[in-house]
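== Polypeptide entry ==
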Amino acid sequence: MDRLKDQGIIVTGASGMAAAAARRFADEGARVVIVSRTESRCAELVDEIRSADGDASYVVADLADPERSEAAAAEAIATLGRVDGVYNVAGGSGRKAGDGPLHELTAEGWDYTWRLNASSHVFLTAAVLRTMLEQPRDASRSRGAVVNTSSVLAFNPVAELFATHAYAATKGAIEALTVSSAAYYAPRGIRINAIAPSLVTTRMSERAAQDPDTMAFANRKMPLLDTFIDAEEVASTALYLLSPESRSMTGQIVTIDGGWSVTSTA
């Protein structure tokens, strides 16, 4: 249980996949800083990790705000000293703000969803990269690793059930950002990859989990499972991508979808 022993890891978000990952990283010996805008969730998660003898702390910040992201990164760096990894999970649905089919998408919905899902990945990561670039390489020749969060919906849409086009666009942008930045930072010893999950059991998926049509679709489209994916399964992949075990991987989009992307639903 020491695959991240003594490594400094920043996790954005404090529930769902982020919470599962923070717990797992701490179990594997990492020193974890959680960054999220909801203090109560941060505090609860940190207390849980510490009660299991893990090393965790938190910073409260709206990661769509560049100034708050910069300040949060500075605070996390001061806590950790060396930052070995960033796992960007913070984000969510913009449906309540007006996301939907393109002809119904509001300007507010577009801006809100873009900030929530794309800007939240960019500003903190940019600040941390400036520190990573100055760090010495570790035993695996790495200065650090970044894992972003995309979605299977970016390139395997389901028009009849998930017509939130701004959300899909932000996730596609994250994949482009991952690949382009991985190319730039590879010679500098920094790896950047992304995970693209399908339906995962989280707070965000509660609405879908209560819809019989969505559940029936998921059972057909994700034939490896008979339900949604456990957040812990995604955490296992994030752990691998942040650990020295994946030191030769960069610019990759790892899809975790129970067969979604290779299964028809005729």
